Amino acid sequence: MLKTSVAIDSKLPWVGTTIFTVMSKLAADCGAINLSQGFPDFQADPALFEATLRAMRQGRNQYPPMAGMPELRTAIADKVEALYGARYDAEQEITVTAGATQAIFTAIAAFVRGGDEVIVFEPVYDSYVPAIETVGGTAVYAQLKFPAYKPDWNQVRSLVTPRTRMIIINSPHNPTGSVLDAGDLAALADLTRDTDILLLSDEVYEHIVFDGVRHISLASHPELAARSLVVSSFGKTYHITGWKIGYVIGAAELMSEFRKVHQFNVFTVNTPCQLGIADYMRLPSRHLGLAAFYQQKRDYFREQLKGSRFELLPCCGTYFQLARYAGISELPDLEFARWMTREAGVAVIPVSVFHHDGCDDRVVRFCFAKQETTLAAAGERLRRI
Q1: Number of folded domains that form the chain
Q2: Domain membership flag for residue 11
Q3: pTM of this structure
């Protein structure tokens, strides 16, 4: 192995390999059923592949515009208007990105400067804080407390200082499955009114909400929309996480600054896949049916865990199910997750990794975006623990 002689002053000395990579590798090494990393084990609709292949065969294989193909940006604008009653300008207010993670990093890089503070809610998805710290910002942690995982807006208000530049929200929330409601958005509007605080809203699971609950996008709230960049993901919506295509919407002035960074850290996203998705979006049922599709999987997985010693927590959205294991083990959750993978043959994610201080409520996260055969096999193993 080649060794460098260059002295390195790491910007992220505390960051190692992500827990998702670690647990997926351990699952592969042990032959365990992988319910850890959040990706489906089933194929997307062949019609999406056919639409993309048509674009390739038609010669649509060269650089697209920096902001994304007009066909896709128009399809996004139509979808957002139909769902949330807000019309975004496809030319100036929508940018196609190389997945949601790139959109989030780019938004942070565009607006957060050294010394700025960014409020995040923990358990916090693992890409937010490294992005904040890479550009010299400081993460400030609000708590979504076990077991309800709902924001305490009084606590959030107490964390706001003159250095607060941005608040990042995530709804439906990974890893907890909680969903913000109209009262939460009203509290957020009251909190940020008459400030220059920007909002970055990670809404990649926008179509995966259950039990009649409605996802309320920041795009649907005019006061919040005016100060927000809203991110979504085609990977989550159309079961194509490996395509790494998402988008961000926001007011033209905000999008102008976003694109200044976007054009130099990605520039653009591959043409035929954009065109394939644009064609596929012409049938709204393909995203509107996602809630029922995943609710069936959630309910099936929860049924599989009946008779086990896991305590299932509520799951209002996403394709993740949290469970307490206090009736099984007193191990810390990271050790328990490793034990589960090696000994029980099912890989999970320990929720403490989503806390900066390692807060451990003895809770693990299962991904149920799997075929029923996978979930049934996992259920059989989990009931034996």
Answers
A1: 2
A2: no
A3: 0.96
